[in-house]
Amino acid sequence: MSWGDLFDRAAEYDVTLDDVQTAVSRRRSGDGGDGDGATSGDAGDDEADDGGAES
Amino acid sequence: MTDASPARVVADADVLAADLLVGGAARDALDHVRAHSWVTLVASEPLLDDAEAVVAELADDDLAADWRERVEALRDPVDHPDGDHPALASALHGGAMHVLTFEEGLQSAAAGAAIRGRVETSVKQPRAFATLFDPESLYGAVEDGEYPGPDRDPRA
Questions:
Q1: Does A6 reach chain B within 8 Å, measured CB to CB?
Q2: Cα B50 to chain center, whole Å?
Q3: What is the full DSSP assignment across B72-131?
Q4: Is the pLDDT of residue B38 over 70?
Q5: What is the band of A40 on the pLDDT scale with cuts at 50, 70, 90?
Q6: B143 in contact with A at a CB cutoff of 8 Å?
Q7: Do B22 and A20 touch (CB under 8 A)?
Q8: Whole-angstrom Cα distance, residue B25 to residue B38?
Q9: Which residues of chain A neighbour B97 with C-beta distances below 8 Å?
Q10: In chain B, which among 79-138 make CB contacts under 8 A with chain A?
Q11: Which of B118, B120, B134 is closest, CB to CB, to A51?
């Protein structure tokens, strides 16, 4: 199935971005996810970095 | 762990689901990925599980299953430890230099600190990625030769 077909089918539903964000948040909290962005074993540092494709 | 590349992108579950169900900035951002074969969507199983569950909840199981089959063909799979944030861990272990999310908390300094020093990852809103994405410049950084233009139909 193509992306275009999927988008056409999805358009039948009246879903907002708020609906999506709420559903993701609910699922992750329900799964016991911490939702704080932590990844295991990461020391981290304070240096910001915003490099990327746009440069 | 995969070498980091500016052509490797993670979309969090909210962006993946919004791409399908809402459109707008999420679809504009991921259209860049779909339209360029040398731009890679990186995603772990837990990340796709989250997005698929949201699609099933807000739409239906059949659409969620068909979306999963299609996105599986697009993404580069990556593994990470259970319990890690699926988007950030996908970027960390999959060498993605872009994480797209609508979640403001994920764009915070604390979240960024979790992966800095391991991968140079920029966490940003899909609209920012869609607007700032410069395929010609990026192509020169990751591929040889001149940018040939989009090489895939983003609706295929």
A1: yes
A2: 14
A3: HHHEEEE---TTS-HHHHHHHHHTEEEEE-S-GGGGSHHHHHHHTTT---EEE-HHHHHH
A4: yes
A5: very low
A6: no
A7: yes
A8: 21
A9: 51-53
A10: 80-81, 83-85, 88-89, 92, 97-98, 102-103, 105-106, 108-118, 120-122, 124, 129, 132-134, 137-138
A11: B120
Phi/psi region, residue A19 (left: phi>0; alpha: psi -120 to 50; beta: rest), is alpha
Q: How far is CA B58 from CA A14, B29, B54, B102, in A?
A: 9, 21, 6, 17
> Is 0.85 exceeded by the ipTM?
yes
Q: For residue A35, name the pLDDT band (cuts at 50, 70, 90).
A: very low
Q: What angle do CA B6, B26, B133 make, to 5 degrees?
A: 35
Count of Cβ atoms closer than 10 Å to residue A21 Cβ: 18
Cα-Cα-Cα-Cα torsion B47, B127, B24, B77, nearest 10 degrees, comes to -20
- Which domains are delineated in chain B? 5-142 (3.40.50)
Domain extents in chain A: 1-29
Question: Do the chains contact at A37 and B88, CB–CB below 8 Å?
Answer: yes
